[in-house]
Give the backbone structure.
Amino acid sequence: MTAPAPPTDPRLKFLWRPYTQMQTESAPLTAVETCGAQIKLSDGRWLIDGISSWWTACHGYNHEHIIEAMQKQLDDMPHVMFGGLTHEPALQLAYRLSTILPGARTPDALSHVFFSDSGSVAVEIALKMAVQYWRNKGVPGRKRFVAFQHAYHGDTTGAMSVCDPDEGMHALFKGAIPEQIIIELPRTADQMAAFEQLLMGGQNEIAGVILEPLVQAAGGMKFHSPEILTALREACRRHDTLFIADEIATGFGRTGTLFACEQADIVPDIMCIGKALTGGAIGMAATAANENVFSAFLSDNEKAAFMHGPTYMANPLAAAAANASLDLFEDGDRLEQVERIEDALRDQLEPCRTIPGIKDVRVMGAIGVVQMAQPRDIDWLRQRFSEENVWIRPFGDIVYLMPSFIIGADEMTALTGAVVNVMNEWSKRTG
Ligand SMILES: Cc1ncc(COP(=O)(O)O)c(C=O)c1O
């Protein structure tokens, strides 16, 4: 076993870290072990994890059922290419997903599952699928997308193009990526009418509309109602425009139902899933399409085939982890746990509402958000949280919690207690 890296590890300079100003940001903490809802650091401390590794570890870390399934798969076949070959873990997973995704066993079902290795790539695939769908149908001009302010769909070029171009992380790339139609998420009757007009006028240009259902996550944890989601989906149906739901953040129970679309009783044409698909054990994502989309790729013409195929597509190890994660959703009481987390978040974050400088406190499912009026002292906040032995990473103007569903009641109280204490300190400090 190698010794834990000291805090000033000289090897750090070889790491280029995500979303990090490498000149000024302090050294990262070194994680050495994970268990349940906690992360152990090289200094021996255990931190209670408030964000379940970017919202992936829904069953907690190192769940024995997932580890066992992966260990078995590792012995049999860690990887094999997917072109011309298939395997049991992928066959099982595609079938099982088709039975639980919104619309399962109806004519609208999302029964055609295309695997990939990350959420951003699943979004790229959805966008490409929509463009090629129209090309295959003889409408090549339909190649632009409508997306929404505060959206975040990933960091690759196509995915960046449907993110918020101003408020998001990609403003720097304006002009270097395809320009899409980015509008305010319609909330009023007038805005909804304008959206309909846009779709009506764009029938030779717009390929699809892409939205994170109910929660725009990395763009600031902004919520919208199921009614808005239903209205947007129905407008797309009326104007023959593909509706793409990006459930990479919301999927697998996070908002209180297995998928957020269920709360609006809608089924998209194309849906992206990722993150918690493998229970946080290993990277995997998928893009699922309905029969109408899939059938547009069926032809005697080879060129009508969907032109995509990542090298590690449907990786058997990841598919085994995902199947094991689905077992845990079937056998466990995950949605009841989400309900309990929701109650705890509502109750325990409430004191933040009256802290000067706090603009909003909101909760949906296992997502709790404390929004600051001004984003100040984010590095100080991060430092203070880790001193409190919790792992919470504020960004932009929000401090948020998205814990593992198996988190214990005491761990939950420690997390929310840290948020209330540290935000009180922050408020006094920032005046
Ligand atoms: C809604 C949504 N879509 C796409 C992505 C990109 O996923 P990945 O980081 O796996 O590429 C994210 C990541 O936060 C996300 O929240």
Residues 78 and 110 are 27 Å apart (CA to CA). The chain has two domains: 10-64+333-430, 77-331. The pocket of pyridoxal-5'-phosphate is lined by residues 118-120, 123, 152-154, 212, 217-218, 246, 248-249, 274 (CB under 6 Å). The mean pLDDT is 96.
